[in-house]
User: Fold these one by one.
Assistant:
Number 1:
Amino acid sequence: MPPSAPALTTEPGFEQRVRDSFGRQPAMTLIGAQLVRVVPGEVEVVLPYQREITQQHGFVHAGMIGAALDSACGYAALTVMPAGTGILTIEYKLNCLAPGVGERIRLVGRVRKPGRTILLVEGEALAVTAGGAERLVATMTATEMTIRGRDGVLD
């Protein structure tokens, strides 16, 4: 029997705190990533297909997928952290499973093991066609670290 999902606790205002922080990320703005869903322990980001973020074969570059999926995982972790804290990724593993081809890439980060200092988060990148069909193109396992005292610099 699979283990049950961890109990996730959030503070009032967590969603706005995540949205505000994401909005301050120039890297996500540069590649066109958009935060579309924020719930306790889970975040969804959408990366629209643009020629500027592709590699030589016309696929969305794995580095762009990895960057956006890293943000989805980090912000999923932030949803369960107290106000006044932030998150930094300290390690991640990206598995590329299929070419990033579609109208957009949907990136979902989910907290698998919350903690006060270290959190384990998993992510999926799904290529979405114009008709709405999805194909798993990458997975990520990320370790996130709680930080404090970085307001205005990192959060």
Number 2:
Amino acid sequence: MRSEPAHVTDNSAVVIEETRTDDRRMLARARRIVVKVGSSSLTSIKGGISEEALTELSDALAAKCNAGAEIILVSSGAIAAGLAPLGLAKRPRDLATQQAAASVGQGLLMARYTQAFGAHGVTVSQVLLTADDLMRRSHHQNAFRALNRLLNLGVVPVVNENDTVATHKIRFGDNDRLSALVAHLVRADALVLLSDVDSLYDGPPSKGAKRIPQVDGPQDLEGVSIGSPGKAGVGTGGMQTKVEAATMAADSGIPALVTSTANAAAALAGEDVGTWFSVNSGRKSVRMMWLAHLAHVQGRLILDDGAITAVRDNHTSLLPAGITAVEGTFESGDAVEMVSADGTVIARGLVNYSASELPQMLGRSTVELGESLGRGFDREVVHVDDLVLV
């Protein structure tokens, strides 16, 4: 049984935080790494899961695990694995059939991972998550405790979105974004995003584009043409979502590497492969990461200049006195955008009132509202704890 990872303690956390700003060579000594692999990297030409690709990846990850690292594998492929048994030629478009394929394929995928890792004496476990598991504090804490305990026991958790029960409204959208949230959840030292493309390029690789070895901030991506999902049609992401996930991680204090599955062993050894996204911000909570990057926005609140200053510069809650208009249809607890008069998005947050309740409150103080409309209308429209600047 392994002891608690050193980076969980306060003293050593300082050391890890310093190394996170280093280059990709830190992967060679990283203690806790989240690795994400996409469906396209695991799929054979004939369809279904490629035994060769899955075994090669498992060999690389098991070797890293046996060398003392803790690995969490966020793996797509459940839907792809379920296509053949259901007689489906390609990934279905409707959610119900996707859920059916995932239900059939998840067991098949886990059986193959169990066998491949087991050949190296490494035990794997299945962990299925929904967005709700990382949004609610009690679920979030339970997910962290379970994953942390599995890692302490030397197990490689294989994480996937719980496609069988997820709905359109609460889906992560793809496992790239899920992996960034999981990396943050478990306090990982690094995130490695694997696909069938070896690096991010400044244009189509087939047209002589140049590899982008490192991204230190948004300025390094200006003018870069980023690809969409491949022709196989078994995945949901493409390079776009990998860049978004890597940026999410880097923005929350975790460096990320985007490269191909064939480069997995080289990447974990810290070799010069792929595109490295260096840390450019401190840590955010998982909930705030979800709100900033993944929340399904239901409406907009248009703010006056005073409210913009209060929210953006003074980091305070949004009050009804600073709202000039309401757009969209939403209920209390839904995510909304806070925008300026010209439509510039200032922040996102979880609103405390419905779209039908707010119009009568605009421009009025909470004291006045409490006196005229009664108790319950004297609260903030968006509390600062449920608000993130974008």
Number 3:
Amino acid sequence: MAKNPLTYADALTNALALDGLNEDTRVTLLALKTSIEKKNSADRKPTATQTANENIKAEIRAALADGTPRTVTELMAVVPTLNGASNQKASALVRQLVEDGTLKRELVKRKAYFSLAR
């Protein structure tokens, strides 16, 4: 298993633990660490694209609610917001739904069909 790289916050924690830092350096490093932790906080609201993608995922789930397994291409034809989207975007959204357990993927004659996981 690969070792996780040292994060900036961890490096700053290590630097703050060193003896012999003058007070100005300690205050600056502490402020920098606080800033990094704030940026990495999970309290941030989602971006406009993330919100739009969640809406598209809801439409994909609704399109599959009838129980008919569909390919990504078929989903693009059924879901109105995917009409102008690329196949890569549609595939990425469907893959995310498979990874979180919402959809299941079945191969039939080397073609992937997706349906709601029950």
